[in-house]
């Protein structure tokens, strides 16, 4: 069995396991709809008192909310649940079985669990983006193409951040709180970086680039994007992917040493 087929089998099995609980799917879908309603309600209340927020209009913030749902949905669909399982396996010693599989361990670790209901977040995000673009109008084919590319870059960037945090289990052992804090920090990405104080803005842009993953594609989708910020997002994504791979290799050597 080749690697692609083996990976497909794992994904299919995970999907079937989740679809057994259809009531849970309905509950999670309702939760996603309510969460979106609260987010849009907050924007409406805010813009009943101001005309713009850090240079963003109401339709632009709605679009940013949609991109936030898409990026977060991609991460929470597969990567976050898969890495939570990986952390548990390292702690209880069953990670050895993953290393015996004839496929790249990092790829398999990141794609083994599927929370299928998170696809609702992605669908809602696409719908919100479509409505927002309908209200303010399309900025042109080039900015839209750049925005689509940067949504993928943002999702990849966040996946790399999650991998870096999860890989720290090889050194820190107990990292459950780290993953929970990371999930909470991602909520900052639903607002533009300009609303935060300078020190926090720098942290959320350079150190932990949460806002880069959503605000930069939103800027391009609204015709406000700059080549400099787009290039920074791509370079940050590449750097974090390389870092996550390097840490993974180092962590595997440490894990093998501890297991021998």
UniProtKB/TrEMBL annotation:
Coiled-coil annotated residue ranges, if any: none
InterPro entries for the chain: ABC-2_transporter-like
Listed transmembrane segments: 25-47, 59-79, 116-135, 147-173, 199-218, 230-248
Protein origin, superkingdom: Bacteria
UniProt KW keywords: Membrane, Transmembrane, Transmembrane helix
Record's keyword annotation contains Transmembrane: yes
Protein name from the UniProt record: ABC-2 family transporter protein
Source organism of this protein record: Kitasatospora cystarginea
